[in-house]
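To: structure desk
From: M.T.
Subject: fold request, one chain
Message: Could you run this one when you get a chance? Sequence is below, nothing fancy, just the single chain.
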Amino acid sequence: MYALVESGTITKYFSYPKGFILGDLQYPKDIFMKWSVAEKKAIGIIEVTFDDGNKKDETYYINTNQTYTYDADAGTVTAAYGDATPKLHADTLWTAQDETDGKGTEGEVATRGLKYNFIKTIKAQAAGILQNTDWYILRKADADTDVPSAITTFRAAVRTKAAAMETLITNASNTAAIETLYTYVNTADEGDPVVMARPLGVFPELGS
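Reply: Done. Structure tokens follow.
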């Protein structure tokens, strides 16, 4: 991406190479590939440098639009994000004023937070894992065939892990705490092989 700087001000952006008119001259799109950095800069065409320092995971945060800044001393154009806003970690409820305004009933859920959505996902994941061994349970009900103990143990472990995950999410105090639960880090001692794990943990696997 390039910016056109005229008299110290960014006047145009180029998301892709294309011809343009500057003053009385028509420039072909080829200049973006064929001209040197100095040649492009001489007519005010500067490649944009992207600064993602403030950009955060959009699973948990709402990023701002990028702001483009021209630094005359350095001769650079930088696109940077402002401070990201954490998404709501807990549900919000309709207030008495909201009910008066006809928006909703006081005390009922107005907007679902991250906790609700992540717990909903955990429940779906657990159900999907258990579904693979549901046929043992159906066979037991239909033909009174014993369910192997390994299967019973595994299914119990999945439910236990799901409940533990849900508790961790429920107890998270803010959005950053929820993000931390899902962030993989190296848990191995220094010098040992890398072992990536997350505080939330993972579901057990059958046979492991």
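Reply (cont.): The CA atoms of residues 120 and 166 lie 9 Å apart. Let me know if you need anything else for the meeting.
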